[in-house]
Amino acid sequence: MSARETGLALYDRTARDAAATVISRYSTSFSLACRLLGPRPRPHVRDVYALVRVADEIVDGPAEAAGLSPEAAGRVLDELETETLAAVESGFSANLVVHAFAGTARECGIGGDLIRPFFASMRTDLSTSRHDGASHDAYVYGSAEVVGLMCLQVFVNAGAPHPIAPSAELVDGARRLGAAFQDVNFLRDLDHDATALGRDYLDLDSPGSSRTAVLDRIDADLAAAAAVIPLLPKDCRRAVTAAHDLFAELSARLRRSAPAGQRVRVPDPVKARLAARAWLGFAPREVRA
Question: CB–CB of 287/219 below 8 Å?
Answer without folding.
Answer: yes
